[in-house]
Design a protein that fits this description.
The structure holds 2 protein chains of 2 kinds. Chain A is α+β, with helices and mostly antiparallel strands. A 6-stranded mixed beta sheet of chain A has the order 6-7-8-3-9-10, sandwiched between helices. A 6-stranded antiparallel beta sheet of chain A has the order 13-12-11-14-20-21. Chain A has a 5-stranded antiparallel beta sheet with strand order 15-19-16-17-18, with no helix packed on it. In chain A, helix 2 packs across helix 3, helix 2 packs parallel to helix 4 and helix 3 crosses helix 4. Chain B is mostly helical. Chain B has 14 helices and no strands. The longest helix of chain B is centred in the first third of the chain and has 41 residues. Classes of the chains: A alpha+beta, B mainly alpha. At the A-B interface, strand 6 and helix 2 of A face helix 9, helix 10 and helix 14 of B. The structure holds adenosine-5'-triphosphate (ATP) and magnesium ion. The site of magnesium ion has 3 residues of chain A, from helix 1.
Chain lengths: 365, 315
């Protein structure tokens, strides 16, 4: 086990495509870090550079105190789980898991002990004699994880390991990966494009976009204090609503939407938002902070009448789509509140949880 | 086959549900297989006329006496085996086929790897060039080789002389001639192996190599633990196929050495021609040509069974 540090790392493919544009990241020992971001943002490229499968154009990668830029994958002491598992189809499950140990010339009994231990942990003891073809997707996934675990490497790398599984199994395996990390707390870098996976698994989440890191932080921190408009919109589902606005002062600081609606800014934030008076801004508010009016007495809560467009009952909550100032907006209400398309629904907007984004920089202020 | 059967199942289910479904399905299946048989019949007819009938006829011929009047059972086989001249032909054929196939497979494997690593537009040019020997009619290219091997006026010996070496009698001594015959066969046959192995190489998922290098495999270990096992079926089938074809080889020896010197390069096919056609002993000629058949048939049976088993396990 080891820490991993990525310093000013750049990856350029031929034709001057910069897939990764100089990122810095310190991963401490035992930490579970998740790289998340939209397709093509450079997550896999970053992971593969840590693995040594992709050359580093510039910068340095350190694993456990050594620069590994020129160390081939086999000497980096890492293990990787691939999206489509990459099990050796001509080897039994046992041999798949034992392969790395055999190559490293471990004694037979030690290999058997380790494989049995990992197989028990992952509940695949009865599959050891089978070939990968005779396994289900979830079982293959476990074997791939077993192959990584037996090696007891310094770092685990996962590249979207759950995206080939059906929804139910994905949730189950997600829990198992978390359990596995609690049991064997190896430093882990995990790539996914699914922000829920990222939030549930990570000690720290790294949000990437267009080859740069937008923000690094604990899941709750990203949720409550996104640093940029991108992170604000990416983390959370359904996504945060964005409304163009201006900060105005008419006997108290307020945000003013394009249609003239004004909403008071909570006292605690007046100092923070004061300097942005008159600039083009965007108001960010999460659906869960636009709800039916039951605690509208709380300070900082604004009431707004919405003309319901679409209602989506989800069971534990109901999503209501409507328009504010011509912008499509989603709110999350109690499923027991009855409403339907065309009806007027009074919504309580919790301005204590508002975000204000400066349009010029796309930063949350 | 897969989509054919879904059609059979799917079509009647859509049109006529109910108790009659099973019956109409069977009917449809029968009609379809009848159509398939009808469409295949020209090919089947061709195979029966040109392959199956001659094979059985050869078996029948090999059991007759010289005058082709009396049935003598396996006497011809017993007689041929006891003859030193034929024992030499067996030795030469096995030497020729086994050596040539091993060399072709090895060379094809190496060339396929080279091709695989030349990426970009050049790959197609090189692949095309390397396929040339296989595309030229064998009898014509063998004539060219014969001319190249010629002792006094050929390019090879001229080059050797230029470099200060003695002439080599490529076709003049028994062992030289044997090696020359093998060399021409390898030259002709290696491209086939190359193209098959190249296709096989390209079908090995890149991620297996990545997983293996992370698992700690060196390039050589990846070759032995990933590439070769993944190509095993193709290697077995190509070697089997090539062994059968090489054992039946006729053109090269016929043109290059005509069996000489001192009958030192005769193969089953050329010897069968000499015995059966030139000396007019047709039953013995048939005997010679049938000699390898049981051995190769058994080999094919076991290899194909193994390949099928592997296929079921892996793919
Ligand atoms: N071999 C390559 N040559 C050129 N460009 C490449 C190559 N591999 C990746 N890229 C580019 O680099 C960028 C980042 O790719 P990467 O695979 O890291 O994305 P990702 O974040 O993993 O996306 P996904 O979620 O779709 O897997 C993409 O724009 C991609 O087109
Ligand atoms: Mg990816």
């Amino acid at each position: 086990m080891a820490n991993v540090s990525i310093r000013k790392v750049v990856k350029a493919y031929e034709g001057d495509v910069q897939a990764v544009k100089g990122i810095d990241l310190e991963i401490i020992d035992h930490e579970f870090v998740v790289l998340v971001g939209p397709s093509g943002c450079g997550k896999s490229t970053t992971l593969r550079m840590i693995a040594g499968l992709e050359e580093i154009t510039a910068g340095e990668i350190w694993i456990g105190g050594d620069v590994v830029n020129d160390v081939p994958p086999r000497d980096r002491d890492i293990a990787m789980v691939f999206q489509n598992y990459a099990l050796y189809p001509h080897m039994s499950v046992f041999d798949n898991m034992a392969f790395g140990l055999k190559l490293r010339k471990f004694p037979k009994e030690e290999i058997k002990r380790r494989v049995d231990e990992a197989a028990t942990m992952l509940d695949i003891q009865m599959l050891l004699d089978r070939k990968p073809k005779a396994l289900s997707g979830g079982q293959r996934q476990r074997v791939a994880m077993g192959r990584a675990v037996v090696r007891n490497p310094k770092v685990f790398l996962f590249d979207e390991p759950l995206s080939n599984l059906d929804a139910k199994l994905r949730v189950q395996m997600r829990t198992e990966i978390k359990k596995l990390h609690q049991l064997v707390p190896t430093t882990t870098v995990y790539v996914t494009h699914d922000q829920i996976e990222a939030m549930t698994l990570a000690d720290r989440v790294v949000v990437m976009n267009h080859g740069v890191i937008e923000q690094v932080g604990a899941p709750q921190e990203l949720y409550h204090h996104p640093a940029t408009r991108f992170v604000a919109g990416f983390i959370g589902s359904p996504a945060m609503n964005f409304l163009p606005c201006q900060v105005v002062d008419d006997g108290g600081l307020k945000v003013q939407l394009a249609d003239g609606t004004k909403m008071a800014i909570p006292a605690a934030r007046v100092d923070r938002y004061g300097p942005y008076k008159g600039k083009k801004m965007t108001l960010g508010i999460r659906p869960e902070h636009m709800t039916e009016t039951h605690d509208s007495e709380k300070p900082g809560v604004q009431i707004m009448n919405a003309k319901v467009d679409v209602v989506e009952p989800m069971g534990m909550e109901t999503l209501v789509h409507h328009f504010v100032d011509g912008v499509a907006v989603c709110s999350r209400i109690d499923p027991n509140v009855h409403t339907g398309p065309g009806e007027i629904l009074p919504l309580a907007i919790d301005m204590n949880n508002m975000h204000l984004i400066e349009d010029a920089t796309n930063r949350v202020v | 086959m897969a989509d054919g059967s879904t059609m059979v199942v799917g079509a009647p289910a859509a049109t006529s549900p109910g108790p009659r479904q099973a019956g109409s399905m069977k009917q449809l299946a029968r009609r379809r297989s009848l159509a398939a048989l009808a469409l295949c019949s020209p090919l089947i007819l061709l195979i029966v006329c040109l392959k199956i009938y001659p094979t059985f006829y050869a078996v029948f011929l090999s059991m007759l006496d010289r005058k082709m009047n009396n049935f003598v059972g396996f006497d011809n086989f017993a007689f041929m085996i006891s003859r030193p001249s034929f024992q030499l032909v067996i030795f030469q054929s096995v030497l020729f086929a086994v050596t040539a196939v091993i060399l072709k497979a090895f060379l094809g494997f190496v060339l396929a790897h080279l091709m695989h690593n030349i990426r970009g537009r050049n790959e197609r040019v090189w692949r095309g060039l390397l396929l040339v020997p296989w595309v030229i009619p064998l009898s014509l290219s063998t004539l060219t080789w014969w001319w190249l091997f010629d002792p006094s006026y050929s390019a090879f010996n001229w080059t050797l002389n230029m470099l200060g070496f003695e002439d080599i009698a490529f076709l003049g001594t028994v062992w030289n001639a044997r090696l020359s015959v093998i060399a021409v066969n390898v030259w002709f046959g290696a491209p086939f192996f190359m193209i098959m192995y190249l296709a096989a190489l390209k079908s090995v998922p890149e991620q297996l190599y990545e997983a293996a290098s992370i698992d700690g495999a060196t390039a050589v270990q990846r070759l032995f633990f990933i590439t070769i096992p993944m190509m095993r079926n193709i290697i077995l089938i190509t070697v089997l196929y090539s062994l059968i074809v090489t054992f039946a080889d006729f053109d090269i020896v016929r043109i290059l050495t005509n069996g000489g010197p001192q009958d030192g390069t005769h193969l089953f096919a050329t010897y069968a021609f000499v015995v059966g056609i030139q000396s007019g002993n047709i039953p013995r000629g048939a005997t010679v040509s049938l000699f390898m058949f049981p051995i190769l048939a058994a080999l094919a049976f076991f290899v194909l069974r193994d390949v099928m088993k592997r296929n079921k396990e892996m793919a």
